[in-house]
Amino acid sequence: MSDISTTEAIVIGAGIAGASTAFHLAGLGVKTTLLEREHPASGPSGNSTACCHAFYLMPELSQLAARGTDLLRQIPELTGEGIHFQEIGLAWAVDPDGVTLFGDAVDRVRAEGTPIESLPLGEFEKLAPDYNWDGVAMTVWEPSAGYIDPYSATNAFARGAGKRGVELRTNSRVRSLIVEGGRVAGVELEGGARIAADIVVSATGVWTKPLIAQLGVDLPLTIERATVAVLDAPGAARKYMPFMWADNLFMNYSRPEGEDALYLGSWPGGGTGERNQGTERGKLISKADGYSQTVSDDESVEILETFLTRMPKLAELGIKPGHACVYDMSPDDMPIIDKVPEAEGLFVVCGSSGHGFKLGPAVGEAVANFVTSGKPGLLAPFSLQRFAD
Protein backbone atom coordinates (compact mmCIF):
# COMPACT_ATOMS: atom_id res chain seq x y z
CA MET A 1 0.00 0.00 0.00
CA SER A 2 1.33 3.44 -0.91
CA ASP A 3 2.42 5.81 1.81
CA ILE A 4 -0.28 8.37 2.60
CA SER A 5 0.21 11.54 4.64
CA THR A 6 -2.17 14.41 5.30
CA THR A 7 -1.81 18.17 5.42
CA GLU A 8 -4.10 21.17 4.94
CA ALA A 9 -2.40 22.71 1.91
CA ILE A 10 0.17 21.57 -0.63
CA VAL A 11 2.27 24.02 -2.62
CA ILE A 12 3.97 22.46 -5.63
CA GLY A 13 7.14 24.25 -6.68
CA ALA A 14 9.72 26.05 -4.54
CA GLY A 15 10.51 28.89 -6.89
CA ILE A 16 10.09 32.40 -5.56
CA ALA A 17 6.27 32.40 -5.86
CA GLY A 18 5.83 28.91 -4.40
CA ALA A 19 8.25 29.47 -1.52
CA SER A 20 6.51 32.76 -0.70
CA THR A 21 3.06 31.14 -0.91
CA ALA A 22 4.09 28.44 1.58
CA PHE A 23 5.72 31.06 3.84
CA HIS A 24 2.56 33.19 3.92
CA LEU A 25 0.13 30.28 4.23
CA ALA A 26 2.04 29.17 7.32
CA GLY A 27 1.86 32.72 8.61
CA LEU A 28 -1.92 32.47 8.35
CA GLY A 29 -1.92 29.29 10.39
CA VAL A 30 -2.39 26.82 7.52
CA LYS A 31 -0.54 23.50 7.87
CA THR A 32 1.42 23.40 4.62
CA THR A 33 3.68 21.03 2.71
CA LEU A 34 6.00 22.51 0.06
CA LEU A 35 7.02 20.07 -2.68
CA GLU A 36 10.00 20.70 -4.95
CA ARG A 37 11.10 18.49 -7.85
CA GLU A 38 14.79 19.24 -7.14
CA HIS A 39 15.70 21.97 -4.65
CA PRO A 40 14.47 25.53 -4.05
CA ALA A 41 15.34 27.92 -6.90
CA SER A 42 16.53 25.06 -9.12
CA GLY A 43 14.32 26.35 -11.96
CA PRO A 44 13.83 29.78 -13.56
CA SER A 45 13.79 31.65 -10.22
CA GLY A 46 17.42 30.79 -9.59
CA ASN A 47 18.43 31.95 -13.08
CA SER A 48 16.56 35.25 -12.98
CA THR A 49 18.38 38.55 -13.43
CA ALA A 50 16.19 39.65 -10.48
CA CYS A 51 15.72 43.24 -11.64
CA CYS A 52 13.22 44.68 -9.17
CA HIS A 53 11.19 47.81 -9.82
CA ALA A 54 7.66 49.11 -9.35
CA PHE A 55 7.19 50.82 -12.71
CA TYR A 56 4.56 49.16 -14.88
CA LEU A 57 1.80 50.62 -16.99
CA MET A 58 -0.72 48.23 -15.39
CA PRO A 59 -1.70 49.28 -11.84
CA GLU A 60 -1.98 45.75 -10.43
CA LEU A 61 1.46 44.82 -11.78
CA SER A 62 2.93 47.99 -10.28
CA GLN A 63 1.39 47.28 -6.90
CA LEU A 64 2.47 43.64 -6.85
CA ALA A 65 5.98 44.58 -8.00
CA ALA A 66 6.27 47.28 -5.35
CA ARG A 67 5.07 44.92 -2.63
CA GLY A 68 7.28 42.11 -3.92
CA THR A 69 10.34 44.35 -3.85
CA ASP A 70 9.36 45.49 -0.36
CA LEU A 71 9.25 41.88 0.85
CA LEU A 72 12.64 41.17 -0.73
CA ARG A 73 14.06 44.12 1.22
CA GLN A 74 12.57 42.65 4.40
CA ILE A 75 14.13 39.19 4.03
CA PRO A 76 16.51 39.68 7.00
CA GLU A 77 13.62 40.67 9.30
CA LEU A 78 11.11 38.16 7.90
CA THR A 79 13.34 35.09 7.70
CA GLY A 80 16.46 35.79 9.73
CA GLU A 81 18.58 35.31 6.60
CA GLY A 82 21.33 37.81 5.82
CA ILE A 83 20.30 38.38 2.19
CA HIS A 84 20.42 42.05 1.27
CA PHE A 85 18.73 44.02 -1.49
CA GLN A 86 21.04 46.14 -3.67
CA GLU A 87 19.38 49.51 -4.27
CA ILE A 88 20.96 51.15 -7.33
CA GLY A 89 18.00 52.76 -9.14
CA LEU A 90 16.49 52.13 -12.56
CA ALA A 91 16.49 54.41 -15.60
CA TRP A 92 13.99 53.90 -18.44
CA ALA A 93 14.76 55.58 -21.76
CA VAL A 94 11.45 56.59 -23.36
CA ASP A 95 10.86 57.50 -26.99
CA PRO A 96 8.58 60.40 -28.05
CA ASP A 97 5.62 58.08 -28.67
CA GLY A 98 5.77 56.80 -25.10
CA VAL A 99 6.02 60.10 -23.24
CA THR A 100 2.33 60.51 -22.41
CA LEU A 101 1.78 56.83 -21.56
CA PHE A 102 4.89 56.54 -19.42
CA GLY A 103 4.41 59.96 -17.85
CA ASP A 104 0.88 59.11 -16.70
CA ALA A 105 2.12 55.82 -15.24
CA VAL A 106 4.89 57.63 -13.35
CA ASP A 107 2.32 59.90 -11.71
CA ARG A 108 0.22 56.90 -10.67
CA VAL A 109 3.15 54.83 -9.36
CA ARG A 110 4.37 57.82 -7.34
CA ALA A 111 0.86 58.29 -5.90
CA GLU A 112 0.95 54.61 -4.89
CA GLY A 113 4.01 55.30 -2.75
CA THR A 114 7.09 54.54 -4.86
CA PRO A 115 9.71 57.29 -5.33
CA ILE A 116 9.78 57.86 -9.10
CA GLU A 117 9.97 60.80 -11.49
CA SER A 118 10.01 61.58 -15.19
CA LEU A 119 12.90 63.75 -16.28
CA PRO A 120 13.03 65.71 -19.54
CA LEU A 121 15.88 65.27 -21.95
CA GLY A 122 19.05 66.81 -20.54
CA GLU A 123 18.51 66.42 -16.80
CA PHE A 124 19.36 62.73 -16.60
CA GLU A 125 22.31 62.93 -18.99
CA LYS A 126 24.45 64.24 -16.13
CA LEU A 127 24.33 60.79 -14.49
CA ALA A 128 25.49 59.02 -17.66
CA PRO A 129 27.39 61.51 -19.85
CA ASP A 130 29.01 58.73 -21.91
CA TYR A 131 25.65 57.46 -23.21
CA ASN A 132 24.19 58.43 -26.56
CA TRP A 133 20.75 59.88 -25.85
CA ASP A 134 19.57 60.18 -29.46
CA GLY A 135 15.88 59.39 -29.77
CA VAL A 136 15.20 59.70 -26.04
CA ALA A 137 12.44 62.17 -25.19
CA MET A 138 12.15 61.43 -21.48
CA THR A 139 13.82 59.35 -18.80
CA VAL A 140 11.91 57.64 -16.03
CA TRP A 141 14.02 57.43 -12.87
CA GLU A 142 13.09 55.07 -10.04
CA PRO A 143 15.82 55.52 -7.40
CA SER A 144 14.63 52.76 -5.04
CA ALA A 145 14.81 49.99 -7.67
CA GLY A 146 17.55 47.39 -7.48
CA TYR A 147 18.34 43.70 -7.46
CA ILE A 148 19.02 40.79 -5.13
CA ASP A 149 20.65 37.39 -5.49
CA PRO A 150 17.68 35.31 -6.73
CA TYR A 151 18.93 31.91 -5.58
CA SER A 152 19.63 33.10 -2.04
CA ALA A 153 16.40 35.09 -1.78
CA THR A 154 14.25 32.15 -2.90
CA ASN A 155 15.98 29.80 -0.48
CA ALA A 156 15.54 32.36 2.31
CA PHE A 157 11.77 32.23 1.84
CA ALA A 158 11.84 28.42 1.67
CA ARG A 159 13.86 28.18 4.89
CA GLY A 160 11.71 30.87 6.45
CA ALA A 161 8.66 28.77 5.60
CA GLY A 162 10.32 25.86 7.37
CA LYS A 163 10.80 27.99 10.48
CA ARG A 164 7.06 28.65 10.39
CA GLY A 165 6.33 24.94 10.38
CA VAL A 166 6.11 24.18 6.65
CA GLU A 167 7.31 20.71 5.67
CA LEU A 168 9.69 21.12 2.73
CA ARG A 169 10.16 18.01 0.62
CA THR A 170 12.92 18.31 -1.96
CA ASN A 171 13.53 15.84 -4.80
CA SER A 172 9.78 15.18 -4.70
CA ARG A 173 8.21 15.21 -8.14
CA VAL A 174 4.45 15.22 -8.46
CA ARG A 175 3.22 12.53 -10.80
CA SER A 176 -0.44 13.47 -10.72
CA LEU A 177 -3.13 15.52 -9.05
CA ILE A 178 -5.80 13.62 -7.14
CA VAL A 179 -9.32 14.87 -7.81
CA GLU A 180 -12.39 13.30 -6.23
CA GLY A 181 -15.96 14.42 -6.80
CA GLY A 182 -14.94 17.61 -8.54
CA ARG A 183 -12.51 18.82 -5.91
CA VAL A 184 -8.81 18.35 -5.36
CA ALA A 185 -7.90 15.75 -2.76
CA GLY A 186 -4.10 15.85 -2.88
CA VAL A 187 -1.22 14.66 -5.04
CA GLU A 188 0.60 11.49 -5.94
CA LEU A 189 4.39 11.62 -6.13
CA GLU A 190 6.66 9.66 -8.39
CA GLY A 191 7.24 6.45 -6.49
CA GLY A 192 3.59 6.22 -5.47
CA ALA A 193 3.48 8.15 -2.20
CA ARG A 194 0.33 10.20 -1.74
CA ILE A 195 -0.30 13.38 0.21
CA ALA A 196 -3.89 14.26 1.01
CA ALA A 197 -4.96 17.91 1.17
CA ASP A 198 -8.05 19.99 0.47
CA ILE A 199 -5.97 22.80 -1.03
CA VAL A 200 -3.29 22.46 -3.72
CA VAL A 201 -1.42 25.41 -5.22
CA SER A 202 0.50 24.63 -8.39
CA ALA A 203 3.30 27.19 -8.57
CA THR A 204 5.17 25.10 -11.12
CA GLY A 205 5.78 27.75 -13.78
CA VAL A 206 7.05 26.19 -17.00
CA TRP A 207 5.98 22.73 -15.79
CA THR A 208 2.36 23.79 -15.19
CA LYS A 209 0.75 23.05 -18.56
CA PRO A 210 1.29 19.25 -18.62
CA LEU A 211 0.37 18.91 -14.93
CA ILE A 212 -2.96 20.71 -15.30
CA ALA A 213 -3.60 19.00 -18.65
CA GLN A 214 -4.24 15.80 -16.65
CA LEU A 215 -7.60 17.37 -15.74
CA GLY A 216 -8.47 18.09 -19.35
CA VAL A 217 -7.58 21.78 -18.96
CA ASP A 218 -5.48 23.29 -21.74
CA LEU A 219 -3.80 26.35 -20.25
CA PRO A 220 -2.77 28.97 -22.84
CA LEU A 221 0.94 28.76 -22.08
CA THR A 222 4.06 28.55 -24.18
CA ILE A 223 7.70 28.27 -23.11
CA GLU A 224 10.40 30.65 -24.29
CA ARG A 225 14.13 30.34 -23.84
CA ALA A 226 15.49 33.75 -22.83
CA THR A 227 19.18 34.62 -23.04
CA VAL A 228 21.39 36.90 -20.95
CA ALA A 229 24.77 38.14 -22.10
CA VAL A 230 27.46 38.73 -19.47
CA LEU A 231 30.22 41.31 -19.93
CA ASP A 232 33.48 41.22 -18.00
CA ALA A 233 34.13 44.50 -16.17
CA PRO A 234 36.48 43.73 -13.27
CA GLY A 235 36.17 46.45 -10.65
CA ALA A 236 34.38 48.78 -13.08
CA ALA A 237 30.85 47.48 -13.58
CA ARG A 238 29.23 50.52 -11.94
CA LYS A 239 31.39 52.82 -14.05
CA TYR A 240 29.87 51.41 -17.24
CA MET A 241 26.40 50.80 -15.81
CA PRO A 242 25.82 52.91 -12.68
CA PHE A 243 22.16 51.85 -12.42
CA MET A 244 19.73 49.33 -13.86
CA TRP A 245 18.64 50.17 -17.38
CA ALA A 246 15.60 49.66 -19.62
CA ASP A 247 15.16 51.11 -23.10
CA ASN A 248 11.85 51.16 -24.96
CA LEU A 249 13.60 52.21 -28.18
CA PHE A 250 16.14 49.39 -28.46
CA MET A 251 14.04 47.08 -26.28
CA ASN A 252 16.81 45.95 -23.93
CA TYR A 253 17.65 45.98 -20.25
CA SER A 254 20.77 45.68 -18.14
CA ARG A 255 22.17 45.82 -14.65
CA PRO A 256 25.57 45.52 -13.00
CA GLU A 257 26.31 42.25 -11.23
CA GLY A 258 28.34 43.40 -8.26
CA GLU A 259 31.44 45.31 -9.26
CA ASP A 260 32.83 42.94 -11.87
CA ALA A 261 30.21 42.10 -14.51
CA LEU A 262 27.19 43.37 -16.43
CA TYR A 263 24.05 41.43 -17.30
CA LEU A 264 22.45 42.36 -20.64
CA GLY A 265 19.13 41.12 -22.00
CA SER A 266 16.44 41.99 -24.53
CA TRP A 267 12.66 42.17 -24.20
CA PRO A 268 9.80 42.68 -26.66
CA GLY A 269 7.88 45.13 -24.48
CA GLY A 270 5.35 42.78 -22.92
CA GLY A 271 4.25 43.80 -19.45
CA THR A 272 4.57 47.53 -19.92
CA GLY A 273 1.28 47.53 -21.77
CA GLU A 274 2.85 47.77 -25.20
CA ARG A 275 4.72 45.31 -27.35
CA ASN A 276 7.46 46.08 -29.84
CA GLN A 277 6.65 43.85 -32.79
CA GLY A 278 10.07 44.37 -34.31
CA THR A 279 11.90 42.78 -31.37
CA GLU A 280 12.51 39.07 -31.62
CA ARG A 281 10.91 36.96 -28.92
CA GLY A 282 12.79 34.30 -27.03
CA LYS A 283 13.08 30.98 -28.80
CA LEU A 284 9.99 28.84 -28.39
CA ILE A 285 10.75 25.39 -26.98
CA SER A 286 8.44 22.45 -26.49
CA LYS A 287 9.64 21.23 -23.08
CA ALA A 288 10.98 22.91 -19.97
CA ASP A 289 13.63 20.24 -19.43
CA GLY A 290 16.70 19.66 -21.54
CA TYR A 291 17.02 23.13 -23.08
CA SER A 292 20.46 24.63 -23.56
CA GLN A 293 21.39 26.83 -20.61
CA THR A 294 24.60 27.85 -22.37
CA VAL A 295 24.52 31.06 -24.39
CA SER A 296 26.69 31.04 -27.50
CA ASP A 297 29.04 33.90 -28.35
CA ASP A 298 26.80 34.73 -31.32
CA GLU A 299 23.79 35.04 -29.02
CA SER A 300 25.74 37.27 -26.63
CA VAL A 301 26.98 39.48 -29.47
CA GLU A 302 23.43 39.81 -30.81
CA ILE A 303 22.28 41.18 -27.45
CA LEU A 304 25.34 43.40 -27.05
CA GLU A 305 24.76 44.99 -30.44
CA THR A 306 21.41 46.36 -29.27
CA PHE A 307 23.33 48.38 -26.64
CA LEU A 308 26.23 49.76 -28.65
CA THR A 309 24.38 52.68 -30.23
CA ARG A 310 23.37 53.88 -26.79
CA MET A 311 26.48 52.76 -24.87
CA PRO A 312 29.42 52.51 -27.30
CA LYS A 313 31.95 52.05 -24.49
CA LEU A 314 30.56 48.58 -23.77
CA ALA A 315 32.56 47.47 -26.82
CA GLU A 316 35.67 47.78 -24.61
CA LEU A 317 34.51 44.89 -22.41
CA GLY A 318 35.06 41.21 -22.95
CA ILE A 319 32.23 38.72 -23.23
CA LYS A 320 31.93 36.09 -20.51
CA PRO A 321 29.80 32.94 -20.81
CA GLY A 322 26.16 34.00 -20.67
CA HIS A 323 23.24 31.99 -19.38
CA ALA A 324 19.73 31.13 -20.49
CA CYS A 325 16.53 30.45 -18.63
CA VAL A 326 12.97 29.64 -19.59
CA TYR A 327 9.83 31.75 -19.24
CA ASP A 328 6.27 30.45 -19.09
CA MET A 329 4.47 32.89 -21.35
CA SER A 330 0.78 33.72 -21.52
CA PRO A 331 -0.84 35.20 -24.66
CA ASP A 332 -0.95 38.72 -23.13
CA ASP A 333 2.38 38.50 -21.26
CA MET A 334 0.57 38.67 -17.93
CA PRO A 335 0.49 36.05 -15.16
CA ILE A 336 -2.25 33.47 -14.82
CA ILE A 337 -3.24 33.18 -11.15
CA ASP A 338 -6.61 31.64 -10.46
CA LYS A 339 -8.72 28.76 -9.23
CA VAL A 340 -9.04 25.85 -11.65
CA PRO A 341 -12.81 25.44 -12.20
CA GLU A 342 -12.54 21.71 -12.86
CA ALA A 343 -11.16 21.00 -9.37
CA GLU A 344 -12.36 22.99 -6.39
CA GLY A 345 -9.48 23.82 -4.06
CA LEU A 346 -6.88 23.80 -6.86
CA PHE A 347 -5.06 27.03 -7.70
CA VAL A 348 -2.51 27.80 -10.42
CA VAL A 349 0.29 30.37 -10.41
CA CYS A 350 1.88 30.46 -13.85
CA GLY A 351 2.42 32.52 -17.00
CA SER A 352 4.76 34.93 -15.24
CA SER A 353 6.08 35.94 -18.69
CA GLY A 354 9.41 37.24 -17.43
CA HIS A 355 8.00 39.35 -14.57
CA GLY A 356 7.90 36.51 -12.08
CA PHE A 357 10.80 37.15 -9.74
CA LYS A 358 9.99 40.68 -8.59
CA LEU A 359 6.29 39.82 -8.37
CA GLY A 360 6.85 36.45 -6.68
CA PRO A 361 7.01 37.41 -3.00
CA ALA A 362 3.85 39.53 -3.29
CA VAL A 363 2.09 36.95 -5.46
CA GLY A 364 2.77 34.36 -2.76
CA GLU A 365 1.30 36.64 -0.12
CA ALA A 366 -1.74 37.41 -2.28
CA VAL A 367 -2.30 33.74 -3.17
CA ALA A 368 -2.21 32.80 0.52
CA ASN A 369 -4.89 35.40 1.16
CA PHE A 370 -6.89 34.23 -1.89
CA VAL A 371 -6.76 30.62 -0.69
CA THR A 372 -7.91 31.44 2.83
CA SER A 373 -10.44 34.21 2.07
CA GLY A 374 -11.74 33.26 -1.36
CA LYS A 375 -11.13 36.82 -2.55
CA PRO A 376 -8.53 37.38 -5.31
CA GLY A 377 -7.82 41.03 -4.51
CA LEU A 378 -5.02 42.33 -6.73
CA LEU A 379 -4.95 38.99 -8.53
CA ALA A 380 -8.40 39.47 -10.12
CA PRO A 381 -7.06 40.72 -13.51
CA PHE A 382 -4.96 37.56 -13.88
CA SER A 383 -7.90 35.13 -13.96
CA LEU A 384 -8.35 32.46 -16.60
CA GLN A 385 -11.68 34.02 -17.53
CA ARG A 386 -9.96 36.79 -19.49
CA PHE A 387 -9.04 34.27 -22.19
CA ALA A 388 -12.54 32.83 -22.34
CA ASP A 389 -13.87 36.37 -22.84
Descriptive account of the structure:
α1 packs parallel to α6, α1 (16-27) runs parallel beside α10 (356-373) and α3 (59-73) crosses α10. Strands 6, 7, 8, 15, 16, 17, 18, 19, 20 and 21 form a 10-stranded mixed β-sheet that branches. Strands 10-3-2-14-23-22 form a 6-stranded mixed β-sheet, covered by helices on one side. The protein has a 4-stranded mixed β-sheet with strand order 1-13-12-11, with no helix packed on it. The model has no long low-confidence stretch (mean pLDDT 93). The protein has 389 residues and is α+β, with helices and mostly antiparallel strands. Helices cover 28% and strands 28% of the residues.
Number of strands: 23
Radius of gyration: 21 Å
How far is the first residue's CA from the last residue's CA? 45 Å
Shape verdict: globular
**Mean pLDDT metric:** 93
| Estimated helix fraction | 25-40%
Largest sheet: 10 strands, mixed
Summarize the structure.
The protein is α+β, with helices and mostly antiparallel strands and about 400 residues long. The chain is built from 11 helices and 23 strands. Strands 6, 7, 8, 15, 16, 17, 18, 19, 20 and 21 form a 10-stranded mixed β-sheet that branches.
How would you describe this structure in keywords?
single chain, about 400 residues, alpha+beta, six-stranded mixed sheet, globular
